[in-house]
Predict the structure.
Amino acid sequence: MTHRFTLSRRSFLAGTAAAGGLSLGFSLPALAQDAPTGDIPEMNAWVVINPDNTVVVRVAKIEMGQGTLTGLAQLVAEELECDWDNVTWSYPTPGENVARSRVWGSFGTFGSQGIRTSHQMVREGGAAARMMLVQAAANRWGVDAGTLSVSKGVITGPGGETLTYGEVAADAANLEVPTEVALKDPADWTIAGSRVLRLDTTGKLDGSQKYAIDLKVDGMMLAAIKQTPVMGGKIASIDADAVMGMPGVQRVVQISDEAVVVVADTWWRAKTALDALPIEWDLGENASFGMADLEAMLDEGLSATEAFVGNQSGDVAAAFESAAQVLEADYHYPWQHHATMEPMNAMALVTDDSCEVWVPTQNAETDLAVAAETTGLEIPQCEIHRINLGGGFGRRASAADYTVVALKVAMEMKGTPVKVIWSREEDTTHGTYHPTTKARMRGALDADGNLTALHMRISGQSIFAGLMPFALQNGMDPLTFQGLQADGPEGQLGYTVPNLLVDHAMRNPPVRPGFWRGVNNNQNAFYLESFMDELADAAGKDPLEFRRGLMQNHPKHLAVLDKVAEGIGWDTPAPEGRFRGLCQHMGYGSYVAAAAEVSVDDRGALTIHKIVAATDCGHVVNPQQVEAQIEGSFAYGLSAGLLSQVTMEEGRVQEENFDTYPIVSMWEMPAVESHLIPSGGFWGGVGEPTIFVATPAVMNAVYRATGQRIRELPLSKHDLTPQ
Amino acid sequence: MPTLVVNGTSMDFDAEPDTPLLWVLREQLGLTGTKYGCGVAACGACTVHIDGIATRSCQMQIQDIRPGEEITTIEGLSPDRSHPIQQAWAELDVPQCGYCQSGQIMAAAAFLHDFPEPTDEDIKQNMTNLCRCGTYNRIKAGIKRAAELS
Ligand code: FES
Ligand code: FES
């Protein structure tokens, strides 16, 4: 029997808007009461304890490299007081989550939220399980639970007698789940807060970890996909007969107006046939769109009279009129592709009354909703298998385009599991790109070099408008202003400027935008923190001192900035031929700053000798994994700052692979010194924030080294050879 | 049926002669530890050893593999993750998503063989595999640690 209810895709997608810290609350109907199944009784949704004392922590978020799986397990283990060496993990499925009234909360893993939005739930889960285990031991011994102590999964009674968790787990599982649980003070943590190694490394050392692209199930067929090269283009005709005789080819399936797949017994054969498949395209109205059109569109927005206001105070116009000095500069941030190392892929098996999907996804509940919507089946007839991702970075957070494709092919071949794999070229040319914007920065200085007014006009693309228009607020995309807002726990401007205007002229080119690790903080920090240095120069002040003068109301922003200044030795001259830059920004609840030391040789080649980074994320669950995220964020952020961009001509993305979309390699990777200065009392994310500060810190140093102010990225567009 | 010697075992497969070794390993021989990243020799995710030489298998057609050449994949680097590179990787928690790491480990193992006492500059010049998660600094530290363990 199945229950009929509406679970709209929109409601799931609205959940993903929380990537930007928005609360677009959504609710899901419950299918049944929370009713766990399985041979081994669970303590609660988060904890299963086996008779051999191994502890299985159920993880709602997905692992894609960011270390959340280990961090969440540490938090559970901390409260559970188990032996860390006995901890393993498993993933509940979205089907189980819906069936159990979403006992695990949201599976969405984005917005640097993995830890900070679920620490409370998982710690309470661990603490409740501990209380039940202790109670079970007390019952067995006929003593008061208050007389027992517990350490590393061993319960000790008043007379020194002991029981292990595994020995009392079955009894404990039958006890009432406590409603009142007290959590430890983070100051008392021993497992959480420590530099334990990740739980998921072994399979990454010998090739045994199976990514979705590696999975093989009985009877599986492989598909290669080609989609319209121009957004809005359509297939005019296909000559399937031309390839049906090629080795291994099973089917040619046109899954929509816009895409065709070849299905074969191996992916290589499918791709070989797809490359040979004659396809005529009707490219439509975007077929002439190019960078000149984009430029004109964004430039028009820079001076447009109408714009959405994101942050405003004082009287900007009056302040500019009475200024001693006005500075103006235009900046540009190009499209970027996620370029996950594992290309997009998904496998689906559809029958008349069931549907299974195996997919690397950052939000399997979206895929579940998509599965039901695409197949017309009920939610309980669909299931999504969660598999660790070979990188996500936001590409796998919301669009679920890959899942839709796999489902459509599988619906044409009912009973056969079909896995669709994007070639790298198809992946790169059909992304959900980091939105492109320009900014016109205007600052007013008084005669003493004080900043009296700032107007930041952003012109360009909105993610919400392109990806999830229902999330717009009266047409405005509030996410555009990430890190520039006056207040809020998610991110706030770290400067007090007496007269301030931050506004957005939305201009949407025919290119699909998406959430790209760091999202709009990336360009906002690049614009503002570069311009802060320009203003400091105009004011005749040191960039650090100029900022400090505006930051007295923002002690946490200031603390990370001071930390990197200290770490790089801002007070002392840089070594001969080296130059420094610094910056700060806040996003995803965390305060971050970076300082870079660079040199540029007489052939114009940049070397980043050293980067010092600081993060205040409130609480640190695993310092070595936070450091890994900080280092990785420099690689990701500097890829965009130094090397990569997506461009369009004749409606087509021009970059196709890593040869034309270069990313940071060992060659460019700077040494990174990370300072974690958690100040407590709040929980900030760490997967993205450092990306914001990577590029502006380096570009500010490049300016000191060369006199060139880089206002358009990537740096590789510019010739740094001394003139 | 054509055969290849992979990880010390002679294996039969069924593929057109111009098929890249990468896809024979992955789709015919079930050795999915070797990854597809770019298909154009730009990323190194597909790195295997052919007679000990690090080779990007996406660019090696099986018809170009000579009889007797020995192919080693990540699955055959060591029986129990005991190669110094694997040990060092475990000790330093090098992988993030892990997708590039089979290729990184195979490249690093061949590199360490050629440069038993590598300098930072040696590593920079020779370790050209891409990692989108940005694990480069730990890879560098891992290679140096592996040199100590060797
Ligand atoms: S897949 Fe062979 S180098 Fe990228
Ligand atoms: S660890 Fe993710 S790509 Fe290298």
Q: What stands out?
A: The CA atoms of residues 47 and 56 of chain B lie 4 Å apart. The pocket of FE2/S2 (inorganic) cluster (ligand 1) is lined by residues B 36-39, 41-46, 56, 58 (CB under 6 Å).
